[in-house]
Amino acid sequence: MVLKKTFYILCFWLISSCSNNKVSSELSGKELFNNSCAACHGTDGKLELSGATDLTKSRLKKDSVKSIIINGRKGMPSQTYAYTDTVELGKIVDFVINLR
Protein backbone atom coordinates (compact mmCIF):
# COMPACT_ATOMS: atom_id res chain seq x y z
CA MET A 1 0.00 0.00 0.00
CA VAL A 2 2.81 2.44 0.87
CA LEU A 3 4.57 1.60 -2.38
CA LYS A 4 1.38 2.33 -4.34
CA LYS A 5 0.93 5.72 -2.62
CA THR A 6 4.57 6.57 -3.26
CA PHE A 7 4.13 5.67 -6.92
CA TYR A 8 1.09 7.97 -7.28
CA ILE A 9 2.83 10.84 -5.50
CA LEU A 10 5.87 10.43 -7.74
CA CYS A 11 3.70 10.38 -10.88
CA PHE A 12 1.83 13.51 -9.76
CA TRP A 13 5.09 15.28 -9.00
CA LEU A 14 6.59 14.38 -12.39
CA ILE A 15 3.52 15.52 -14.30
CA SER A 16 3.20 18.79 -12.40
CA SER A 17 6.90 19.60 -12.66
CA CYS A 18 6.83 19.19 -16.45
CA SER A 19 3.87 21.46 -16.99
CA ASN A 20 3.72 25.22 -17.27
CA ASN A 21 4.03 26.73 -13.81
CA LYS A 22 1.07 29.04 -14.40
CA VAL A 23 -2.43 27.66 -14.27
CA SER A 24 -4.08 28.62 -17.54
CA SER A 25 -6.59 30.90 -15.79
CA GLU A 26 -3.61 32.86 -14.40
CA LEU A 27 -2.34 33.66 -17.89
CA SER A 28 -2.94 37.09 -19.35
CA GLY A 29 -4.96 37.63 -22.52
CA LYS A 30 -1.72 38.26 -24.38
CA GLU A 31 -0.19 34.99 -23.16
CA LEU A 32 -3.35 33.06 -24.09
CA PHE A 33 -3.38 34.74 -27.53
CA ASN A 34 0.30 33.94 -28.11
CA ASN A 35 -0.28 30.30 -27.14
CA SER A 36 -3.15 29.66 -29.54
CA CYS A 37 -3.69 32.49 -32.02
CA ALA A 38 -0.34 34.07 -32.85
CA ALA A 39 0.71 31.27 -35.22
CA CYS A 40 -1.77 32.59 -37.81
CA HIS A 41 -2.61 36.10 -36.60
CA GLY A 42 0.89 37.06 -35.39
CA THR A 43 1.69 38.44 -31.96
CA ASP A 44 0.50 41.86 -33.11
CA GLY A 45 -2.61 40.53 -34.91
CA LYS A 46 -1.33 41.56 -38.37
CA LEU A 47 0.28 38.37 -39.75
CA GLU A 48 -2.67 37.17 -41.90
CA LEU A 49 -1.12 33.72 -42.37
CA SER A 50 -3.34 31.15 -44.11
CA GLY A 51 -6.09 33.70 -44.68
CA ALA A 52 -6.23 34.87 -41.05
CA THR A 53 -7.84 38.27 -40.56
CA ASP A 54 -5.74 41.30 -39.66
CA LEU A 55 -7.20 41.79 -36.20
CA THR A 56 -6.03 45.40 -35.98
CA LYS A 57 -8.52 46.28 -38.73
CA SER A 58 -11.45 44.35 -37.29
CA ARG A 59 -14.46 46.33 -36.11
CA LEU A 60 -16.39 43.37 -34.71
CA LYS A 61 -18.09 43.74 -31.36
CA LYS A 62 -17.10 41.56 -28.39
CA ASP A 63 -19.99 39.14 -28.88
CA SER A 64 -18.99 38.53 -32.50
CA VAL A 65 -15.33 37.98 -31.59
CA LYS A 66 -16.39 35.55 -28.87
CA SER A 67 -18.64 33.68 -31.30
CA ILE A 68 -15.84 33.32 -33.86
CA ILE A 69 -13.44 31.99 -31.22
CA ILE A 70 -16.03 29.47 -30.03
CA ASN A 71 -17.43 28.41 -33.42
CA GLY A 72 -14.66 29.18 -35.87
CA ARG A 73 -15.13 30.98 -39.18
CA LYS A 74 -13.98 30.31 -42.74
CA GLY A 75 -10.57 28.63 -42.34
CA MET A 76 -10.30 29.23 -38.60
CA PRO A 77 -11.31 26.20 -36.54
CA SER A 78 -13.21 26.44 -33.29
CA GLN A 79 -10.92 27.24 -30.37
CA THR A 80 -13.08 25.63 -27.68
CA TYR A 81 -10.30 23.12 -26.99
CA ALA A 82 -8.05 26.01 -25.94
CA TYR A 83 -10.53 28.22 -24.08
CA THR A 84 -12.88 26.15 -21.97
CA ASP A 85 -13.03 28.64 -19.13
CA THR A 86 -15.21 31.77 -19.42
CA VAL A 87 -12.51 33.84 -17.69
CA GLU A 88 -9.94 32.77 -20.30
CA LEU A 89 -12.39 33.43 -23.09
CA GLY A 90 -13.07 36.91 -21.72
CA LYS A 91 -9.35 37.65 -21.50
CA ILE A 92 -8.69 36.57 -25.07
CA VAL A 93 -11.68 38.53 -26.41
CA ASP A 94 -10.52 41.67 -24.58
CA PHE A 95 -6.99 41.21 -25.92
CA VAL A 96 -8.25 40.81 -29.50
CA ILE A 97 -10.44 43.92 -29.18
CA ASN A 98 -7.47 45.89 -27.81
CA LEU A 99 -5.30 45.01 -30.82
CA ARG A 100 -7.16 47.70 -32.78
Radius of gyration: 18 Å
Largest sheet descriptor: none
The percent range for strand residues is: under 5%
Q: Helical stretch count? A: 5
- Name the shape in a single word: globular
Helix content: 40-55%
User: Got a strand count?
Assistant: 0
Task: Please identify the structural class as seen in this structure.
Answer: mainly alpha
Name the poorly predicted regions.
4-19
Distance between the termini: 58 Å
Report what the structure shows:
- The structure is a single chain.
- With 100 residues, the protein is mostly helical.
- It contains five helices and no strands.
- It has helices at residues 2-18, 29-36, 38-41, 62-71, 86-98.
- Helix 2 crosses helix 5 and helix 4 (62-71) crosses helix 5.
- The longest helix is centred in the N-terminal third of the chain and has 17 residues, at 2-18.
- It is globular.
